[in-house]
Amino acid sequence: MLYTLEQKEVLRFKDLWRQIPDISQKMLTSTLRHLEDDGIISREVFMEVPPRVEYRLSERGKSLMPHLDALISWGIEHQESIINDRVKHIKSNN
Question: Rounded to the nearest 10 degrees, how much is the dihedral formed by the CA atoms of 80, 76, 8, 41?
Fold first, then answer.
């Protein structure tokens, strides 16, 4: 979700929902509320009919992205050895 907002900059709820596969409306709403409470995203409501709500990364959210990139890079770098260790663990427990 954060990467989607980073790439698109501003998205409405329905656009976010369409771009994140296999997430329920309830879970997306809950996650957005938590991210807003934590100051990671900002939410702007436009008093129109029907109401329009837009989401974007806050400055705090933007500052988080390099750390997420580093974590993902670490995971990619170690993915093969992690999978091998899991397979060994599964085999030793059977």
Answer: 110
Q: DSSP for 72-86?
A: HHHHHHHHHHHHHHH
pLDDT tens for each residue of 2-57: 988 998 889 999 999 999 889 999 999 999 999 999 999 999 999 999 888 999 99
**CB–CB of 69/6 below 8 Å?**
no
**Confidence (pTM):** 0.78
Can you tell me the distance from the alpha carbon of 76 to that of 64, in angstroms, rounded to the nearest whole number?
19
Structure-token pair, residue 26: 């309830």
Q: Which domains does the chain have, with CATH numbers?
A: 2-92 (1.10.10.10)
Which tokens sit at 4?
């989607």
